[in-house]
Design a protein that fits this description.
Number of domains of chain B: 1
CATH topology of chain B: Ferritin
Distance between the termini of chain B: 11 Å
Strand content of chain B: under 5%
Radius of gyration of chain A: 21 Å
Order of helices and strands of chain A: HHHHHHHHHHHEEHH
Helix content of chain B: 55-70%
Structural class of chain B: mainly alpha
CATH architecture of chain B: Up-down Bundle
Oligomer: heterodimer
Largest sheet of chain B: none
Number of strands of chain A: 2
CATH class of chain B: Mainly Alpha
CATH superfamily of chain B: Ferritin, core subunit, four-helix bundle
Structural class of chain A: mainly alpha
Radius of gyration of chain B: 24 Å
Helix content of chain A: 55-70%
Number of helices of chain A: 13
Shape of chain A: globular
Largest sheet of chain A: 2 strands, antiparallel
Strand content of chain A: under 5%
Largest interface: A-B, 55 and 44 residues
Number of strands of chain B: 0
Chain lengths: ~400, ~250
């Protein structure tokens, strides 16, 4: 299973080319494709989005790296376009939102299960229970405002029920920062996980900030405002677990390795042959980019990339339902809160977060309003007295 | 179910996965879990209506109309018996702008449909490219008719009025269906039928309003447009029925 990233050179950067027709391919089917195909598309769009974000930040701080960054970034731009444009036009913003939360649940659950550092695993479980609640709130919105069934998108893989209620997720910034991994001692998988989840949460934040105003309904606009605020907290949390003393080149190298790692996982598990071919192609592109950056790393830092990168990539994220793990985590940790970088029981939550939350929620809580008394049922809550599963259920 | 006019989704290996019965065991776990979970707050959907109501009570409109032109005020003056003059002028201007917007978008909807039929090839049953081109030309002429009407009343036909805005928002879904390369002819005709039903009633209402305000010349011209929209409606209804029945018998 392991991919030898030193031996596999992929496609050289100068041969990574696109046309507009190639970039804008037929989209996936909202109705027919597996929910995990959609999950992979959204995740990979988020990772390409992070590639762009990181590259620009790096360019603004490093004049001498601007040209190589621009060369790689141009390809990443077109990769992201091809990937994101695989989402079909009939997947509405609220439906895409449901899929985003499924990404946050299933991908974070896989990461939490596989993370070798116990503290980091706890951080992921903490965030997981919050995104889990968001799926429930957005499902209520979809049912009650749009008349839709969230499970048309979720395909029964993820639970639709309250998690850590969003109303209590609002924290003082001092309670959003976490301990970070040590760059010299952390396992490569810990670093790959951290960049992956940070990227995913950052794109979720940006997506909600872009689409929130598209909704006419003021309750929907409030709901996006509230949950976008939590995604901002999550981005704050996940970027803080990364060692800030890493050099720009170390960070760039890990970003490229993270993309290779994730395209590999997508390729190995994709069920749609047409989409698998895209993951295969971009795995080769990312290997080419990784080797381009490895050479640069040697020149700039006069160091061997093998100091940072594993010879073989670890097992990838599992694209499967993590229902049991999520339920166990929910039962055991729903009442956890944060005190600085540590997790505590809700009775020990610092006053600063309680005060912050009380003020923010003082004119009502959109997440409570939208889901007041809500229980998801097959089809819609309007089916309260009907069996909507059909025969054999 | 067809993903295009000629190929079914199953030819691409597609199977609809949206229903709970796709994975009965997973659906059972999901359903039982959701039923056992406790909502975090009491109440029901009425909480949304109450929160929405707070904003509705603020009374902010979508937008406003430009001040009425002096010439339009003069025309309306003699007919201001039932409808107040200012209100009448404003309402007519708003609804004319709406009709203009709808006919302009309607022209583009038919262009999209013509493109689809041209790509898929004419079918029997089904509209010919010639028939669709004739309707598209009618829609264009109706747009130009309203354009002239607004201009003759001293108005600005480039204004997007509040009703023009909301009718364009209503039409967004129709455009999405018509311009999606994956939709088939029957799905496109269903969307066009929605447009034609609205269009026919739109002209009827505009005629009633213009009549009420004493615009006899406009009423005469608008009746011609209504007659042509009624023909469109009958044609689209017929094509849609033929398409759906043909699919059912295939």
């Amino acid at each position: 299973m392991g991919l030898d990233i030193f031996r596999e050179k992929g496609v050289p950067l100068e041969k990574q080319q696109f046309t507009w027709r190639d970039m804008v391919q037929a989209p996936t089917s909202k109705l027919d494709d597996d929910a995990f195909t959609r999950v992979r598309i959204i995740l990979m769009n988020g990772l390409e989005s992070e590639a762009n974000r990181f590259s620009h930040a790096c360019a603004r701080m490093n004049r001498e790296l601007q040209l190589p960054l621009a060369r790689v970034r141009r390809v990443e731009q077109h990769q992201q376009t091809l990937v994101n444009w695989l989402l079909p036009a009939d997947l509405s913003p609220i439906e895409t939102t449901l899929a985003f939360e499924q990404v946050a649940i299933e991908v974070t659950a896989s990461v939490a299960l596989r993370e070798p550092d116990p503290y980091m695993a706890q951080v992921y479980r903490f965030g997981l229970l919050e995104d889990f609640d968001h799926l429930y709130r957005f499902s209520a919105l979809y049912d009650r405002v749009a008349g839709g069934d969230a499970n048309n998108i979720i395909q029964s893989y993820s639970d639709i029920m309250p998690g850590r209620p969003t109303i209590v997720e609002h924290r003082d910034p001092a309670d959003d920062l976490r301990e970070h991994y040590e760059k010299t001692t952390a396992a490569p998988l810990t670093k790959l996980h951290a960049v992956t989840i940070m990227a995913s949460e950052n794109q979720t934040h940006d997506y909600y900030m872009n689409i929130g105003p598209l909704f006419a309904d003021p309750v929907a606009r409030q709901l996006y405002a509230e949950i976008a605020s939590i995604e901002e907290q999550h981005t704050t949390q996940y970027e803080s677990i990364i060692d800030a003393s890493e050099t720009w080149m170390e960070k760039w190298l890990m970003h490229e390795a993270m993309e290779v790692y994730n395209y590999m996982g997508c390729s190995q598990q994709e069920t749609n042959p047409r989409i698998k071919a895209i993951w295969d192609r971009f795995l080769d592109y990312e290997l080419g980019q990784l080797h381009f950056v490895m050479e640069l790393f040697k020149q700039v830092e006069n160091r061997d990339p093998a100091e940072l990168l594993p010879a073989e990539l670890p097992e990838p994220i599992d694209y499967v339902s993590h229902r049991e793990f999520v339920r166990e985590t929910l039962a055991a940790e729903v009442d956890l809160r944060a005190d600085g970088t540590q997790f505590v029981g809700k009775e020990d939550e610092p006053e600063r977060s309680l005060a912050y939350r009380e003020q923010l929620n003082s004119e009502g809580s959109p997440t409570e309003t939208v889901a007041a008394g809500y229980r998801w049922r097959p089809g819609t809550e309007l089916n309260a007295d009907e069996v909507a599963l059909g025969k054999g259920a | 179910m067809s993903s295009t006019g000629t190929q079914s989704a199953s030819e691409f290996g597609g199977v609809n996965r949206t229903g709970a019965q796709t994975s009965p065991e997973l659906a059972r776990e999901l359903t039982e879990g959701a039923a056992a979970a406790q909502p975090s707050s009491e109440g029901g959907p009425e909480a949304i209506a109450a929160a929405r109501g707070v904003y509705i009570e603020e009374g902010l409109p979508v937008g406003s109309l430009p001040p009425p032109p002096a010439s339009l005020e003069g025309v309306v003056e003699g007919a201001a018996r039932v409808v107040g003059m200012t209100t009448g002028v404003a309402t007519l201007a708003d609804k004319l702008s709406e009709r203009l917007a709808f006919e302009r978008t309607g022209t583009r909807l038919y262009e999209a449909l013509i493109g689809k039929v041209a790509a898929l090839g004419e079918t029997s049953p089904g509209p010919t490219l010639m028939q669709l081109a004739e309707i598209r030309e009618d829609e264009l002429q109706h747009f130009l008719l309203v354009n002239r009407a607004i201009t003759s009343l001293g108005g600005d036909p480039t204004v997007m009025s509040p009703c023009a805005d909301t009718v364009m928002v209503s039409s967004l879904g129709l455009l999405q269906v018509l311009t999606d390369p994956r939709t088939n002819l029957a799905q496109c005709l269903q969307a066009i039928l929605t447009a034609e039903l609205t269009d026919r009633d739109g002209w009827e209402l505009l005629i009633t309003l213009a009549d009420e305000l004493g615009h006899d010349e406009l009423v005469k011209e608008f009746r011609g447009a209504l007659a042509s929209e009624e023909k469109h409606l009958l044609s689209v209804r017929g094509w849609l029925e033929e398409q759906v029945l043909a699919q059912a018998q295939a």
